[in-house]
Amino acid sequence: MVKIILRKMEYEVRPGMTLLAALKKIDILPESVLATRDGELIEEDEILKDGQVIKLVAVISGG
Amino acid sequence: MRHHKLALCKDHYLEWVPEQAERFIKKYRMFTRDEKILVAVSGGKDSLALWDILQRLGYTADGLYISLGIDEGIGYSAESQRLAEKFATERGLKLHVVDIKSEYGETIPEIAGRTWRGKEKFCSVCGLVKRHVMNRIARDFGYDVLATGHNLDDEVAVLFSNTLTWQGEYLLRQSPVLAETPGLARKVKPLCRFYEREMAAYTLLRGIEYIYEECPFSEGSTSIYYKELFNQIEHDRPGAKLTYYLKFLEARRKGLFSEQVEIQQELHPCTRCGQPTSAPGECAFCRMIGK
User: B149-173 pLDDT, tens per residue?
Assistant: First the structure.
């Protein structure tokens, strides 16, 4: 499985799908996050592999 | 970047952002390399990215950090100050630090807790205090211009809010550049055409450490709600945010608002601090602090 982390939330998706498909699966808008693996940005069309941990960086700030 | 139909590698992206910023600075005639710039730095991604970009472009830019005294169990102000100071120290840049509690006797949460304005809108108190202090430091230290890190998403959220209630006066004032007036420094927003996501990517790729946690008081704010709404629109129609903002600027320039609404406000110097205010007597800041 692929683990996706956003702040305190953790999700798991099946490997073999693109990042974009994975975000859709867990109902997160790609416009609201940046996806990183080991601190490096990854592309939306990258296919996620088993055992990977993807950390999402929320981009919205304000008040 | 679907909205620009552009895909860049890391190195080219880190070149593209400052190049675009320079283009906007010149297009809107924000400032020149002969002028002294004060950058309002919060420790967040946008203001630190702005300071980084201005420094790389060769502008003379000092920073201003305002310690608001927000803790809420996560040491929010302390951590954001640490990051702003770290950024300045590592690059040998000058940072002014103003501590609200030391200067005015109370933190922002304390002021908000005892005022009518704060009970209604906490962020309004914070905004009023920050605007006052930014203008004071700019004036006292002879800066020509005050630069803030507002990005496109910030501008779109404000524009949408003011459009929902047709705030003519605010719509007239929303601009990449607010010209200086007696007692008020020129205000500029060099990042106003960058998507928030683009600035987050810039700080990440540049390796700038910023405060990731939200201000605890911004949770549930309308500006975040509007940003989320616009992210959905942008997802369905790439480029919608930029078009909305740029078409607004174009409409304003063509007089869509000013021809129909004549708003002229006479400003008076505040009897206590001297900064311009709309009504004779003390300004809103001094009235709030003095209570």
Answer: 999 999 999 999 999 999 888 898 8
Contact status of A51 with chain B (Cβ, < 8 Å): no
Does A63 touch chain B if contact means CB atoms closer than 8 Å?
yes
* DSSP strand pairing (A9-13 vs A2-6): antiparallel
Nearest to B100 by CA among B92, B110, B91: B110
Paired strand residues for B145? B37, B186
Which pTM value belongs to this model? 0.91
The CA distance from B30 to B190, in Å, is 8
Residue type, B183: G
Q: Is the ipTM of this complex over 0.85?
A: yes
CA distances from B229 to A59, B121, B198, B200, B223 (A): 14, 21, 18, 19, 10
Q: What amino acid is encoded at B161 in this protein?
A: S
Please state at what angle helix B45-56 crosses helix B196-206, rounded to 10 degrees: 70
Of A29, A31, A34, the CB nearest to B204: A34
Contact A60 B154 (CB under 8 A): no
